Amino acid sequence: MNTQDAAINPRITPGPPDPVGPEVNPFADVDFCELERSLRRPRTLVDLLLSNLVSAMTMLALIPLFSVVLMLLWRGGQRLSLDVFTQLPPAPMEQGGGFGNAILGTLIMVALAALISIPLGILSAVYLAQSRPESPFAGAVRFGAKILTGFPSILAGVFAYGVLVLTFGGYSAIAGGVALSILMLPTIILTAEDAIRMVPAKMRDAAIGMGATPTQTTWMVLLPTAMPGILTGIMLAIARAAGETAPLLFTALFSNYWLFRGGFDLKQPTASLAVLIYNFAGMPFDNQVDLAWVAALVLVLLVLVTNLIGQAFSRRQIHE
Amino acid sequence: MRNTTNAEKLSKARIDTAQRSAKETASNGVVIDCNIDELYYSTFKAVRDTSIPVKKNRITAFIGPSGCGKSTVLRCLNRMNDLVRGFRFKGHVHFRGKDIYHPSVDATAVRRFIGMVFQQPNPFAMSIYNNVAFGLRLNSYKGPVAEKVEDALKRSALWDEVKDKLQKSGLSLSGGQQQRLCIARAIATEPEVLLMDEPCSALDPIATRRIEELMVELKTRYTIAIVTHNLQQAQRVADNTGFLYVDTSDGGRCGYLVEFGESGQIFNDPREQYTKDYIRGEFS
Ligand SMILES: Nc1ncnc2c1ncn2[C@@H]1O[C@H](COP(=O)(O)OP(=O)(O)OP(=O)(O)O)[C@@H](O)[C@H]1O
Ligand SMILES: [Mg+2]
Questions:
Q1: Atom 25 of ligand 1 has which residue's CA nearest to it?
Q2: Nearest-angstrom CA–CA distance, A296 and A277
Q3: Burial bucket for residue B153 (CB in 10 Å: 0-12, 13-18, 19+)
Q4: Residue B12 belongs to what H/E stretch?
Q5: What is the C-alpha to C-alpha distance for residues A307 and A314, in angstroms, rounded to an integer?
């Protein structure tokens, strides 16, 4: 709007008052009460109530989260020391001790599970998103994966128990890893498929227009571009797997000893943080209960660190 | 496996180039001879009776109203339409005398000879350097990649703006720079033909001018086919121009070639009434 218009419009610049005639209020016809914020108006009232309700509910939802974290820091932080990482679980009535073997066991079994589920999950996602997105088989796989995300984890344990523990005679880290991978796989497939689909079609066109084969397009463009999203899915899956107890009870059971006692052996019962917490939390000994708290804290920290690493990775991917 | 075969094809074809150039002069320098009798998307007849010769080291422009099938015809020339489900056509597209739709022809190899620049700038989400090197990597190029990248960026008039930030993401550039990056990416592998589908439509007049100048420079080495809505642009850069129009007579919306010729003739002395109307309409 130019200055001339502004001068003509009396509401914007009233102009100098006429020295002869009476002063005219150019805003006389505006009812300013209309503009005032008033609680008497239902619109304002409802808005105020609802906004506050939303905030209140959010607080409410955060209470359990914060109380768990605080409780963990409070109860677990006290006993956190180097010992818990290096020592073995104490026998009943015994003082001190740690759960180094359980940390190692969790790391190894989650790593095993990741080793199985990440390649499998990403390749299936490529198939679903890229190779044959609309085939009935893809539809069936997608449906199955969705069902599996809500799969009761104990069933994954029972399955691995039936297939591996019974067949190969005995609880083992391998069986534990397989059970966890069953839980990780659907999350990875579905998030990776989404991430690949989110890659803009014009980038795929660009690659194909350059003469890339479908395989080259997938490996050189789609997967690198989708990597941040895929990593997020992997992190989610790892976080879930690391905290699972039920499947491990059926597959890896527990052990009071180091995994590499007399040579590194994945075919023996293996300790894990989740099962240790489950075992110790219910014991009538203070020492064990305290250790269960520390183990819970360590487990949360492990998941946190994994997540941070994953995020750092995906950020580096984006800003390359 | 496919990599190596394509690379082999590529180098073999380079050798063939010299032998064939004689044959090309005989065929009036036509690199792509495109002859579309009927083209369908599923049951929808999109284009009919369109035959356009794309000549070597010339810029051939396709003009016409929206929806008349310019992009469709252009995308036929390097088999990009293969990606569209339900696409089929009657006719032929000959590249250097070879039918690129022949069952024995590998569509991906065709696209390495006939590159494409799209309407929307579409760099990959990777560094500027890797964007340009992409085609070289596809072909498992063994030579000095860095030199090729620099050369392509220079020829696409982008080098001075990006030489200090080659490792930055290609997506961090402005729209005009992104489009020039896409051109650099396309010419890094030295294709014979460059197809450009409204390459300037997302750009401001200054960036548009730069790309136009670039096209005129590039035509000394490549053959260019361009779709444009901008008639002045076609007049400024194109040597030959084809005018497509939509035929709605039998209830469909079928594009067809109304007139093809030297740009000067098409714009100053069009033979067909439709062409006259279209060009006059745009100018008034
Ligand atoms: N992938 C597709 N599937 C089905 N129909 C299509 C597809 N692409 C284009 N068409 C149809 O083919 C006709 C020609 O489209 P095309 O994109 O070639 O037009 P155009 O001349 O490039 O138009 P514009 O100038 O707007 O880009 C249009 O009627 C369009 O609806
Ligand atoms: Mg178009």
A1: B66
A2: 7
A3: buried
A4: helix B2-26
A5: 11
C-alpha A208 to ligand 1 mean position (Å): 19
pLDDT digits (tens, 9 = 90+) for B162-207: 999 999 999 999 888 999 999 999 999 889 999 999 988 877 888 7
Q: Are B192 and B225 in contact (CB under 8 A)?
A: no
Q: Which domains does chain A have, with CATH numbers?
A: 97-319 (1.10.3720.10)
Asked if B124's CB is within 8 angstroms of A205's CB, the reply is: no
List residues of chain B with CB under 8 Å from any CB of chain A.
Answer: 2-3, 6, 78, 80, 83, 108-112, 115-116, 118, 120, 122-127, 130, 134-135, 137-139, 167, 169, 182, 185-186, 189
ipTM of this complex prediction, to 2 decimal places: 0.82
Nearest in space to A193 (alpha carbons), one of A157, A143, A238: A143
Tally of CB atoms within 10 A around B248? 9
Residues above pLDDT 90, as percent of chain B: 39
Q: What is the mean pLDDT of residues B54-82?
A: 91
CA distances from B202 to A169, A187, B121, B180, B231 (A): 66, 39, 8, 12, 16
- Contact between chains at A205 and B134 (C-beta distance less than 8 A): no
Question: Domain for residue B284, yes or no?
Answer: no
The ligand 1 site (C-beta within 6 Å) comprises: B 41, 44, 46, 66-72, 84, 253, 255
- The total domain count for chain B is 1
Tens digit of each residue's pLDDT (9 = 90 or more) over A114-153:
999 999 999 999 999 988 888 899 999 999 999 988 888 8
Of residues A94, A249, A115, the one with CA closest to residue A177: A115
Which phi and psi (to 5°) does residue A110 adopt? -65, -40
Per-residue pLDDT band for B279 (boundaries 50, 70, 90) equals: confident
Tell me the residue type at B126: M
Which of B123, B126, B186 is facing A320, going by the closest CB pair?
Answer: B126
Chain A: which residues have CB within 8 Å of chain B? 200, 202-203, 205-213, 215-216, 220-221, 224-225, 318-320
Residues B253-275 pLDDT 10s: 889 999 999 998 998 988 888 88
**Beta-strand relationship, B59-63 and B223-227:** parallel
Here the CATH number for the domain that contains residue B251 is 3.40.50.300
Please check the confidence at residue A100 and state whether its pLDDT lies above 80. yes
DSSP of B164-230, one letter per residue? T-TTSBGGGS-HHHHHHHHHHHHHHT--SEEEEESTTTTS-HHHHHHHHHHHHHHTTTSEEEEE-S-
Other CB atoms within a 10 A radius of the CB of residue B5 amount to 11
Tokens linked to B21: 């150039």
- Residue A45, token pair as written in the block: 């009232």
In whole angstroms, give the CA distance from residue A189 to residue A234: 9
Paired residues of B246 in beta bridges: B255
**A315 torsion bin: left (phi>0), alpha (psi -120 to 50), beta (else):** alpha
For the CA of B46, the nearest ligand: 1
Q: B191: domain range? A: 2-279
